[in-house]
Amino acid sequence: MLEIGELRVAYDGRPVLGEVSLTVGSGEFVAVVGPNGAGKTTLFNAISGIVPAAGGTIRFDGSDLLAVPPSERPHLGIAHVPEGRQVFPSLTVLENLQMGAYAASGRSAREQDLERIHALFPVLAERRGQLAGTLSGGEQQMLAIGRGLASSPRLLMLDEPSMGLAPAVADDIFERIVEIHCTTRLSVLLVEQRVAEALNFANRGYVLETGRVILEGDRDTLRDDDRIRAAYLGM
Prior knowledge:
Layout: E1 2-11, E2 14-24, E3 29-33, H1 40-48, E4 55-60, E5 63-64, E6 78-81, H2 93-100, H3 104-108, H4 110-120, H5 122-126, H6 137-149, E7 155-159, H7 167-184, E8 187-192, H8 195-201, E9 204-209, E10 212-218, H9 219-224, H10 226-231
Parallel strand pairs: 3-8, 3-9, 6-7, 7-8
Antiparallel strand pairs: 1-2, 1-4, 4-5, 9-10
């Protein structure tokens, strides 16, 4: 579904991503892990078109994504849930979800998607009229994920969904992400610093450091790698 080949991104001439290659197949759950500053968020921003690519390729369902304007990429079935949630604080919960449904696929299945989102996150149904800026951090993360699902995507990109959340709340968010993947077979690309959790849930993973992929493999291969165990799993 998603194929990235030798992707390069630079800020003000300074390389941030250097020839990154990865794939996400239909229905796969793929994790990208690594330390702060590794380029994980930049990777997502390049896929969404927020930052331009300096070289390489990004293909989605065989189409050249780099030739598609950023504003059109959600209509292809790509939902980007950004780092830091970035809900619309002055809009209600329901209005935030409706904003997510502006993509063509989301408009055609709006009511069905809303029911599914409310089933996953009942608190969003309970607080549909509440301003998003007054929600707790965990509730805002649920809303951000729900807003992404409202576009009826085929690829859901989640950037650090556990950031700033208490461990118990983060665990609940992860459980909902796994439920989404298992019940819908939606393709999921996850960027996450909680490496153990990410590798437990993903089918495959990539380790990104200083803008380059240094390791890749299925979850068991990565969890058993001595470098991962020492650097990220405290073993």
